[in-house]
Here is the input.
Amino acid sequence: MCTTCGCGEPHEHTHEKDQELLIKLERDVLHKNKLIAERNRGFFEARDIKAINFLSSPGSGKTTLLEKTIASQKNHFDFYVIEGDQQSSRDADRIEKIGAKVLQINTGKGCHLDADMVHKALHQLEPPNGAMLMIENVGNLVCPALFDLGEHKRVVIMSVTEGDDKPLKYPDIFFSADLCIINKIDLLPYVDFDITAAEDYLHRLNPSMEIMQVSATTGEGMEAWYHWLEKESRLVLD
Ligand SMILES: Nc1nc2c(ncn2[C@@H]2O[C@H](COP(=O)(O)OP(=O)(O)OP(=O)(O)O)[C@@H](O)[C@H]2O)c(=O)[nH]1
Ligand SMILES: [Mg+2]
Here is the structure.
């Protein structure tokens, strides 16, 4: 039996037709997503809303970073949050407790947010002019890289418990990001994570990427992150 599709054909038969169809389908899905992402971008630009897409593997600390950032900086920025998870409203509940307006999106079987989900969420969340919109994507280092949400900046978080080789193994997500936050540096004494090697892999992949080392738990390095946010909030979108 063919192991590619499980059909009854001998191993030699080709899947060129299937592959063509798959490529076309993928192109159509991404094209449609891109069009909606541009609408979202237009919406943000017209209202001077800064939208940041947070990407990482599950558990790297996206929600913790958001909780600490909102708690510390809510007098400086008007935070609105979109939370993406396959199931549950646990992250939205955490953000709500800190006092920011938040909307949870559940993707079900889906492994990423797409531009249409964000478009619909914006109708419900109604971020006002000048808001800082934080979008926490589904924890996954592969699929979210492909889907433009219309965001202004992409921030990828890697934590020191995941291994320093993640940029080599999942290059797309690191290549597409503007900033990489290396989180959980409080755990560096206990784990085998070479921070110089990680930064070297990141810069080889994406020379213009900014890199920060933080501990969202202890607060170490967070000032640099707040300065980055401040700088982004002052950027004029065109
Ligand atoms: N030691 C340490 N633990 C941290 C740090 N940041 C987050 N954590 C812990 O890591 C775990 C996962 O954090 P979350 O913020 O839920 O991670 P997430 O990326 O939002 O996870 P998903 O939404 O499931 O993808 C929690 O137990 C946090 O307390 C940190 O800087 N240091
Ligand atoms: Mg989370």
